Amino acid sequence: MSDQPIDGITAVTVAGAETAPGPAEGAATLGLGASVPPADAAAKTTGVFPYTADLWAEGLLWAAVLRAPHPRATIRGIDTTEAAALPGVRAVVTHLDVKGTPPGDRPPLASGEVRYHGEPVAAVAADHPETARLAAAAIAVDYEVLEPVTDPEKVFESEPLHPAGNIVRHIPLRYGNPDMNGEIVVEGVYRVGRQDPAPIGAEAGLAVPRPDGGVEVYTGTTDPHGDRDRLAACLALEPDQVKIYVTGVPGAFGDREDLGFELPLALLAIRTGSPVKLAATREESFLGHPHRHPTMLRYWHHADREGKLVKVEAQLLMDAGAYADGSAEALAAAVSFAAGPYRVPNAVVDGWAVRTNNPPSGHLRGEGALQVCAAYEGQMDKLAARLGLDPAEVRARNVMSTGDPLPTGQAVTCPAPVAALLRAVRETPLPPPPDEEWVLPGGPDGAADPGAVRRGVGYALGMVHMLGAEGTDEVSTATVKVEGSVATVLCAAVDTGQGFATLARQIVQDVLGVEEVHVAPVDTDQPPAGPGLRGRHTWVSGGAVERAAKMVRTQLLQPLASTFGMSPELLTITDGKITSYDGVLSTTVAEALEGKELWATAQCRPHPTEPLNAAGQGDAFVGLAFAAVRAVVDVDVELGSVRVVEMAIAQDVGRVLNPAQLRARIEAGVTQGIGTALMEHLRVARGVVRRPDFADYALPTALDVPDIRIVELLEERDVVAPFGAKAAGAAPVVVSPAAVAAAVRAATGRPVNRLPIRPQSAVVNAGAQPQPQA
C-alpha cells in the first residue's frame, strides 16, 4: 500500500473511503437485496487497512495521559515542574489549560477532585512516546484520598459525589391499575455485571494545529460532529475552528466516547504548534472508555392460573459510575422495556441511574434493554416452573403483537411478530447429543466427567429500540453526485463495521443503476449525520442517501421523458438500462449520463418522539425490533462449566438489504451475547479496576462460538422506515444472554440470576434434579 498524503498526514484512508467499486467480481446482482461485499473487506482481512494508530505527520510529537490511581480523591495541587524539565518534553497541560466550559457533567481533565480510577488528570507532549510516558509519570499530584462510594444502594444516603448530586435520573413508571394483583406471584433478584466494549483496536488519535488558532483532529470516532462541538466548547473556540477527520475505526459498539482522550491531544497541538499523536495502551483503553451499566433488578411477576400476566413490578438500579454520560437514555430503555415483549395490563416500575466512584458507564449495544431482558426472562422461567408449564408455552400465552401498548402507554405501531419468532425457534429440531467426549464442557483438555454433564434448553424473547428516544432530533443529510457513470456519496455517517458504506453503495446502485459508487471520507465539513448507534444510520442516513439518489434520478430521467412526451415516472432503470413502459425508449445509464454532472442533497428525519412524563408515560420511541433465541447448553454440574451447543435465532428484520452482511451481523451479535452470558466481566474492587487487560478480561474465541442457526429472518416491512428495514445488530446481543441463562437453569435447576454466569451458579448438589424442560 502506498502512502497517500492528505494535509501533511500519511496513511490516511478514512472510514467510509472505498477504493473497490461495485460488487464483487462475478456477482449476479447489484443494489438492495444483493450480498454486496464491503469494499474494504480485503484490506482489513489482510491487515493492510490503515487505522488511526497508523497515522504519521512531519514534526510529530507523542502524547501521554496521566490517569488517577484512586477512585476518589481531592486534588490539592499539581506540580508539573519535573515533568516539563525532562529533555524532549514540549508541553504539559492540566485542567487550568481548559479555557472553555465543558458540556455535560464530566470534566475532560480532572479539576479539584478525581471521581474514578483512571480519570485523566494531565497530559504531556514529547518527541518520543517513552519520553512522554516518563514525563507523565513525573507529574506530582498531591492527592487527599477519600473513601469511595462504590455500592449503588448506598449512594442514596451518602454525601454528594458530584455537584449535580448522586441521582442521575429516577423514572417512576405507573401503568394501568397499580393495585391489581395476580393469583400467582413470583419474585426474583438479578444482577448484570460490568461489560467492556473491548474493541479490537484501542483508541488513537492525531491532532494538528491550524494557522487560525484552531485544530484538526484525526480519530476513529462514531460521532464526529458531537466531538467537534464538545472540543470547541472546551477550547473556547468556534465550531468551525475545530475539524474532525474520521479515520479507520477499529471496532465500536456505540462507544468511542472518551473526550478525556481527544481534548489533551487538541490542547497539546495548539500549545506546541506541532502535530501530536496518542495511541492508547490496552490498559488505558479499559480505563478510559465507558462500559455497560452494572445493574441490580428486583422483580415481582403477577399472573393468573393460566399463566397470563396480570402485573409486573420492578425496581431497577443502574450504576452510572462517576458521570452521567448516556445513563439517562439507558435508564429510559430499561424502564420502558422492563416487562419485555409481552402483554402486561398493569405495571409498576421504578428505575434509578445513580453516580458512584466506579468507572463510568455509557453506550454499549442494547444498553438498558439487555439488563432487563435477563431479568424478565428469568421471571418467565420461574412462572413456568410454578405453574408446571413448558417455559416456551408460558411465553407464547403472553407475547405482544402489533397494536399492543408498551407499559409507557405507547402503541406498538411497527410490525411486532413476536409469536411467529417464538414459533420458529420452538419448532426447529434440537441438535443431537454429543457423540465424542472432547466436545463436552471444558473443551478438548477439559476435566468433564460425561456422567456429570446435563443438557439444557432455554428460550428468550427480547426487544430493542431504534434511533434516539424521548424527543431526540434524529436527522441526517447526504449528497449524491454522478459524473461520467461514477457516483459519489457524501454523508457524515461513520461506518464502524456495521456496513453503512456498503448500504450507501447499494442504494445508489439500486436507484440510479450506476455500478461504480464511492463513499467519500467523513469529516465535519459535511452536514451532521449523528452518532452511529441503535441502527440509526440504516434508517436516517440510508434514508437521506435514498432521497438524494432519487432526486438525481429525476434530473437524469426528466430530459429523456420530455423528449418522448412522457412523465419520468414511466421510465425504469434496471441493470444499468433505462426503458420506458412501452418499450419505445431504451438506452443505457452510461449513455444518458455522458457529459453530465448531476448532484442533489437531501435530509431524512423520522417522526418525532416525546420525553417520558412523570408517570413514565409517552411516545418515546421511533421504532422497535424483536428477536427470539433458543439456546442449547451442556453443563458439567460438578464443575459448573458450560458449553453452548447451539443458538437458534429468529429475528424481525423488516427487510433484508444485504443477506450476507445481515447474517454476519446477527452471528456477531449472538457471539457477543454469549460473552456477556458466560465470561465478560470487568472486575472492579472498591472502585479500582483489576487487571485491565485481555489476560484477565475473557472474550469469546472461535472455540467458544457454537452452531448459530438463523432459522428465520422475518421480513414484515416497517412502513415508516426507509426500505422497511430494521436495526439488526443489537437484538441478538440483548436476547442471547437471557437464553443461555435459561438453558443453564433448565440443565441445573439453579436460579441462575447473575450475568456473567459464575461456575458456582451452575453446580448442582448430589441428588438434585433439574427443573422440567420440554
Automatic annotation (TrEMBL):
Pfam families: Ald_Xan_dh_C, MoCoBD_1, MoCoBD_2
GO molecular function, one term: iron ion binding
Ranges of residues in domain Aldehyde oxidase/xanthine dehydrogenase a/b hammerhead: 46-147
Domain of life of the source: Bacteria
Family matches, as PANTHER family: XANTHINE DEHYDROGENASE, XANTHINE DEHYDROGENASE SUBUNIT D-RELATED
Official protein name in the record: CO or xanthine dehydrogenase, Mo-binding subunit
UniProt source species: Streptomyces harbinensis
